[in-house]
Amino acid sequence: MWSCGPLNGTGRREDQLLCQHTHLVLPAFTLLYLAVGVPVGLCYNALLVLANLQDQGSMTMPDVYFVNMAVAGLVLSALAPAHLLGPGASGWALWGFSSEAHVTLLVLFNVCSLVTMYSTALLSLDYYIERALPRTYMSSVYNSRHVCGFVWGGALLTSFSSLLFYICSHVAARIVECAKMQHPEAADAIMVLIGYLVPGLAVLYALALIARIRKEDTPLDQDSGRLDPSVHRLLVATVCTQFGLWTPHYLTLLGHTCLALWGGAVAGQHPGLLLFAKDLSRCLAFSSSAVTPLLYRCINKSFPGKLRRLLRKLPCGRRGCSADQAGAQQVLA
């Protein structure tokens, strides 16, 4: 578990007191997420993807982006045990693996974080377009699917530059090309800029436009083809959840970059606080994969119906099938 061993030689009484008060809190929160959050994330993200893909004719523009986030959530839930219990944990790794495996897991984590943040930002912008210009097909399901494909491709390309810095930080200086790139702080700075600041500004801009257009009542508000009003609540809840849970992670990356530029003097004075913030922010980031599908399940009115149609298509025996479906529907209700 997360122990005070790495801090014994620091001589900082504040760090020792912090460690004594928090050395049980963080492992308890992490194990709670691994025991509850990971199964919930895997289950609900898989249900969200299957329920929408089996009934693609009823999918709307927000459904496409939530399916995209659910796919990223599945990958994050699968990576969570390796990240939270592996050598990436500050002082309580249960196993170790090679640097190549560590870099691979880190790049996959960065790709999923980029997909999640940009899907949230594009959902906000497309929702504004749908409110301002309905029936123009600029924010249609067809276009949203292609946009999500570009999001995954862009996330892979963006992570490639970070991959070079991470690889060079683990490779000896015998490689000439890597001699001047052994700085993982540069990869962190790229992730903060592209993965947080850009989608954050896009979301703020979209929410400002949405707030302005909601104050204006127009005849288009009575259009039967407009999105369900619950989509606005789902959008606001998703934006607040995603940015609330991912902001500590990106602030930690920003702090790590700033401390590296300052020579690490401050980091040497408070190692316990920095390690605790790093582990806690990582755990909060992973928990977003379980919270988002729960929000979709609770707020989206069409999701229960899609689940019932999915259960009807599941293979079952000729006898007792209707009874089993009725029981499953009661559990879902």
Explain the overall architecture:
The chain is an all-alpha fold and 333 residues long. The protein has one domain (14-134, 141-214, 227-309): Rhodopsin 7-helix transmembrane proteins (Rhopdopsin 7-helix transmembrane proteins), CATH 1.20.1070.10. Helices cover 74% and strands 0% of the residues. It has eleven helices and no strands. The chain has helices at 13-22, 25-53, 61-85, 99-132, 141-170, 184-214, 230-261, 265-269, 271-299, 303-313, 321-332. It is globular and about 55 Å long. The model is unreliable at 323-328 (pLDDT under 50). GO terms for molecular function: G protein-coupled receptor activity. Residues 44-296 form the G-protein coupled receptors family 1 profile domain. InterPro entries: GPCR_Rhodpsn (IPR000276), GPCR_Rhodpsn_7TM (IPR017452), GPER1-like (IPR047143), GPR146 (IPR037487). Keywords: Cell membrane, G-protein coupled receptor, Membrane, Receptor, Transducer, Transmembrane, Transmembrane helix.
